[in-house]
Each structure stands twice: as C-alpha cells, then as structure tokens.
Amino acid sequence: MNRAEDSTYCTDHLYLAAFLTCSGHAVVNTTRNGERISFVFLATAEVSAAVAGFMSGAVIPARKFSFEVLKLKRFIPRSKLTMEKNRNDESSTP
Question: How far out from the chain centre does Cα 44 lie?
C-alpha cells in the first residue's frame, strides 16, 4: 500500500498488476521511480482481496492474463525492454 496516498494501491510487479486488471480492477495511474514503473489502483477491499488471492495462488484464464501483460508492457519504456532482452541474450550464450 502506498502510504503517501492511502486511497491507492501501487505495485511494480507486472504479473500482479495483470492479475488485478484481469480481476476487473482498472489501472488509474502509473508512477515512475527511476527505471521502475508502478501501476496504481484504487485501494479498495476488493483490490486487497484480489492481491491476497494472487499471493495464495488464485487461478485466472491464461489467455486473458497474457493479453493484460501485453497491454501493461506498453507502459514500460522500450529502451528498458531492449536492455533486458540484450542482457538475457548475453547470459544465454555459451
């Protein structure tokens, strides 16, 4: 929970954010801390329950989840994605 703004819940966990959007919770804003993007949701009892569900292994449709991940990745600057891809390519070479 973001203490500076008690009415919002922020996460930089891409998969949690995708899970929350799949569960019907809209991203109301994004924030940036250096290179990290946080997704901001309204802090409600339903969001808290969805976060708890995610942490305890709740299941959602895979196809819907993958589309939400793709949509959320649009918030991440392309240069960061390119750097991560290059880093992963370098680590997989023998």
Answer: 17
Rounded distance, CA 26 to CA 61, Å? Answer: 17
HEC profile of the chain: CCCCCCCEEEECCHHHHHHHHHCCCCCCEEEEECCEEEEEEECCHHHHHHHHHHHCCCCCCHHHHHHHHHHHHCCCCHHHHHHHHHHHHHHHCC
30 membership: H or E segment, kind and range = strand 29-33
pTM beyond 0.90, yes or no: no
pLDDT, position 2: 47
Question: pLDDT tens, 7-63?
Answer: 999 999 999 999 999 999 999 999 998 888 999 999 999 999 999 999 999 999 999
